[in-house]
Amino acid sequence: MAQPSPRSALVVVDVQLDFCPGGALAVASGDAVIAPINRIAPAFGTVALTQDWHPAEHLSFAANHAEREPFSTVDMAYGTQVLWPAHCVQGTAGAGFHPELALDVADVVIRKGTDPAIDSYSAFFENDRRTPTGLGGYLRERGVDEVWLAGLATDFCVAWSALDAAKLGFDVTLIEDATRAIDLDGSLGRAMADLRAAGVRVLASTDIPG
Ligand code: VGL
Ligand code: ZN
């Protein structure tokens, strides 16, 4: 068993309709993360949700580049960017949280990806790896020292969040069965190797008392 301490935070990444089956950037079985998240969330001192929240003209959308297909890449000022199908556009149904996600236990919602010129996978920093979302300061001020991660997608927003949390000095745990991956050209295997190299602990939600 693994018991989150009172100084723990569960960061629930992007459990939004567009990342669930039927959504604009659907992750296979993305909605399977909801039941484990709902069961374990009350065990954490703080619960933070992230919400991918893009303007329609966001430059991570393939449609906003001339003759570019979704899932190809472009070079942006801050590095290589995957071009995605338009997703999680501000105010649309697809940007909403999945209706079965238990929202009542959430202390804070962090919206990310709002600047049209830069993507934001991580809950902590935009993709320049420098511009903070404010979540790190919020957790620090509340005395949090453990960050536990769940949500979508394992190999993008969840992995980048976990790596940044480790960089910020939090003790980091990935709850593997409470995540699902996009797995683009081996991205899941690379992400898991990066997480382990960064000292992120990986366990199952069944290891956590509800
Ligand atoms: C995500 C791609 C684009 C994610 C968000 O939540 O993992 N992936 N925007
Ligand atoms: Zn996005």
Strand order, largest beta sheet = 5-2-1-6-7-8
CATH architecture: 3-Layer(aba) Sandwich
**How would you state the average pLDDT, rounded?**
97
Low-pLDDT stretches are none
Structural class: alpha/beta
Number of helices: 4
Helix share, percent? 10-25%
Span from first to last CA? 11 Å
Q: Output the CATH homologous superfamily.
A: Isochorismatase-like
* CA-based shape: globular
Distinct small molecules: pyrazine-2-carboxylic acid, zinc ion
Elements, N to C (H/E): EHEEEEHEHEHE
Family: Belongs to the isochorismatase family.
Pfam families: Isochorismatase (PF00857)
GO biological process, one term: pyridine nucleotide biosynthetic process
EC number: 3.5.1.19
Structure explained in plain terms:
- It contains four helices and eight strands; from the N terminus they run βαββββαβαβαβ.
- It is an alpha/beta fold and 210 residues long.
- It has a single domain (8-55, 96-207), classed as Rossmann fold (3-Layer(aba) Sandwich).
- It has a six-stranded parallel β-sheet, sandwiched between helices. Strands 3-4 form a two-stranded antiparallel ribbon.
- β6 (146-152), α3 and β7 form a beta-alpha-beta unit.
- The protein starts with 7 loop residues before the first strand and ends in a 7-residue tail after the last strand.
- 45% of the residues are buried.
- Bound molecules: pyrazine-2-carboxylic acid and zinc ion (ZN).
- Pyrazine-2-carboxylic acid (VGL) binds next to α3.
